[in-house]
Amino acid sequence: MLRDRFGRVATDLRISLTDLCSLRCTYCMPAEGLAWLTKTQRLSDDEFVRLASLFVSLGVESIRLTGGEPLVHPTLPDVVARLAALQPRPELSLTTNGVTLDRFARKLVDAGLDRINVSVDTLDRARFAELTRRDRLPSVLAGVAAAADAGLAPVKINSVLVRGSNLDEAPELLGWALREGYHLRFIEHMPLDADHTWSRDEMVTADEILAVLEGAGYAVRPHGQRMHAPAEEFDVLDGPQRDAWATTVGRLGIIASVTRPFCRECDRLRLTADGQLRTCLFARTETDLRGPLRAGASDAALAELIVDAVAEKQSGHGIGSAGFVQPERTMSAIGG
Ligand code: SAM
User: Fold this and answer.
1) Which of 73, 95, 186 to mutate to test the pocket of ligand 1 (most atoms within 8 A of CB)?
2) Per-residue b/e over 133-152, b at no fewer than 16 CB within 10 Å?
3) Could you point out which of 26, 112, 184, 221 has its C-alpha 20 to 30 Å from the C-alpha of 194?
4) Could you tell me if the CB of 330 is within 6 A of ligand 1?
5) Which atom of ligand 1 is nearest to the CA of 191?
6) Is the pLDDT at 69 greater than 90, yes or no?
7) What is the CA(289)–ligand 1 centre distance, in A?
8) Is 227 left (phi over 0), alpha (psi -120 to 50) or beta?
9) For 218-243, how does the pLDDT look when each residue is reduced to its tens digit (9 = 90+)?
10) In DSSP terms, which residues pair with 219 in a beta bridge?
């Protein structure tokens, strides 16, 4: 079991298959991209699968493939199939920008993918092109529909709201998700941007998102306990919140990592595309698994490195504390 000194047990692993991405979201990376890893620096599929298998043997129950953009990884369906063959079989999910998803959704389901999250920050084509620096909204929407058709329902939609850009679109995004049967989750912008321009005063908070939705006529009510899930869930009602008879017409999630942190419940670990284990998105240290793996370390030796790293997991991300320093790696280089 992967237990840290605060008693938290890690059961969820996020694997960044590649740091490459097909979009250039303004709040994530610069127009020219980042200093990409070389092919040799990135783990091979065999290395990803060997490490994943070790994590599963240590108690990991769910694996999310992410990036960068995981659909850019040339052998993604094959990786999914190999992970689905692990025993005990982990639950497998994917976080993607959806750009080429319409071509891959069916193959991924056939390979064993269980769940999917697609990032859609706007439904306006011109705004999408501006925000992502690529004119790909039609492909993304086709990808979302293809995922639902392939049986990945309910498709989860991730949206980051940015002041002066798409904040006004929160009600429209929610309306679209409710109509189509998708599960929308708004994510607070975190200090993991390449430009280091994030500011607490400028970021859109969960409170503000709820106020914007309320202002547009939506009533929401907290839905049960959050448990280990990063998103706080809300029922969207068909009448005012105060009306006891209002019934639920859908769900909404808000991932408020900054203003409503859930570090005490965190059960996550992250493996970067170059084989570094991170026990927190905001960790300032990493544990190198690629070096020992390539030097011929046994499974037992690698397991010991993992167990020791998890034991030292920091208590919380510390955003807002005086000593907080943004990590070197950006969200896309860690694996969001
Ligand atoms: N390319 C895939 C995608 O777009 O979903 C996977 C990687 S991307 C880094 C994962 C998620 O992180 C996306 O929903 C993206 O909007 C979000 N993201 C990127 N930078 C972020 C930041 N600084 N704070 C919060 N979310 C961020």
Assistant:
1) 95
2) ebebbebbbbbbbbbbebeb
3) 184
4) no
5) 23
6) yes
7) 24
8) left
9) 999 999 877 777 899 999 998 666 67
10) 237
